[in-house]
Design goal:
Blueprint lengths: L1 H21 L5 E7 L13 E7 L4 E7 L8 E6 L2 E7 L2 E8 L2 E10 L2 E2 L3 E5 L4 E4 L4 E6 L9 E6 L11
Antiparallel strand pairs: 1-2, 2-3, 3-4, 5-6, 6-7, 7-8, 7-9, 10-11, 11-12
C-alpha cells in the first residue's frame, strides 16, 4: 500500500507538467496597423502596431514595433474582452471591459519611437476627436468618485521624417 501511494504521486506530478509544455505561443496575428503612411520598407520592418490573440490564456498581446526592428519595443497584454479599438496613424486606443467598468489604453509613437502606454479606468466608452492643432484627443469618462473626464492629447504624425544620420 505504501508503494501504491508513491506511484500515484509520481503520476500526478508528471500529468501536472504536461499542459505547460504544450501551450501554443500567442502567434495568431489578429490585426496589423502601420504607424506612418510613408514607410518604404518591407511590411515586417515598418513602425507598426500588432494585435495577437492568445487563445489559451484569453489575452491579446499589443505589440509596437519601431521601424526596422525585429523585436517589439512594447509587448503589453490586455484581456480578450475588447469593447473597442481605434487606430489613427501613430496612435492606437483599446478599451476592454471587466467588472463594473473598463480600461482604456493608449499606445503611441512619437517621431518613430514607441512611447509609454497611457491607461485610464473608464465608466463608459471613450470619445475621439481631432482638435484645431492636429492632435488626436481621447476623452475617457472616468469612474465614479473621480472628478471630470480624463483628456489625453497625442500629436498626429502621418509621415515619419527621417532623423539625420539614420
Amino acid at each position: 500500500m505504501h508503494m501504491m501511494g508513491r506511484l500515484i504521486l509520481i503520476a500526478s506530478f508528471s500529468v501536472a507538467l504536461v499542459p505547460a509544455q504544450v501551450l501554443p505561443p500567442c502567434a495568431e496575428q489578429v490585426s496589423r496597423f502601420p504607424a506612418y503612411s510613408n514607410q518604404e520598407v518591407a511590411p515586417q520592418f515598418e513602425a507598426r502596431f500588432e494585435l495577437r490573440r492568445c487563445p489559451w490564456s484569453n489575452l491579446i498581446r499589443v505589440l509596437q514595433f519601431e521601424r526596422g526592428a525585429k523585436r517589439p519595443a512594447v509587448d503589453f497584454q490586455i484581456p480578450d474582452s475588447t469593447r473597442a479599438t481605434y487606430h489613427s496613424f501613430n496612435v492606437l486606443v483599446t478599451q476592454t471591459v471587466g467588472g463594473s467598468g473598463s480600461a482604456v489604453r493608449m499606445f503611441w509613437f512619437k517621431r518613430g519611437k514607441a512611447q509609454e502606454i497611457v491607461e485610464e479606468d473608464a465608466q463608459s466608452n471613450f470619445q475621439i476627436r481631432v482638435n484645431d492643432k492636429g492632435e488626436l484627443v481621447v476623452e475617457v469618462p472616468v469612474r465614479r468618485g473621480r472628478t471630470g473626464p480624463g483628456i489625453f492629447r497625442f500629436p498626429i504624425e502621418v509621415v515619419l521624417h527621417e532623423q539625420p544620420g539614420r
